[in-house]
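Annotated sample (chain length 159).
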Amino acid sequence: MLNFLLRLRFLVVIIVLFTFLNSLILIFLAVKRSVHAYGIVFFNLESDKPPGVEILESIDLFLIGLVFLIFSLGLTKLFLGRIGDEDDESNLPKWLRIKNFFELKILLWQTILVSLVVLFVDQLFEHEGTMEWNLLIVPVAILVLSVSMAVIQKYERHS
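Output written by the structure step:
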């Protein structure tokens, strides 16, 4: 039974491949949006959004693509073993030296928080003159996620 369960870990390969593909597609869409924003600035292309909003939306797409990329690399490291040719982790960047699922979760949590901050700034630029109460949903979510992450990290260190 244990051998059967150990073979199932290679299903993670499918998850990693599609998550990596999703990250590449999001990065492509972000590049496309950035190029369109540059076209608005330099070639006076038509757009219903200002170029600053287009650029902020592209940054948001880059960050979400980064979340998918980190997730796929983290799953590869945790479930499939080595990422590089060597066992030595000194060649890996510090943020990719993931030893357990908790560290991967915290890394993803931090990346999602940064994406939410960029999303909020994007919303501020988009609704520049018309501030409404529903714009407070994202900052409240950022606050709740930040506090909960701090509590979980403190609890994990003390256990």
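Annotation: The chain has a mean pLDDT of 86.
Annotation: The chain has one domain: 2-158.
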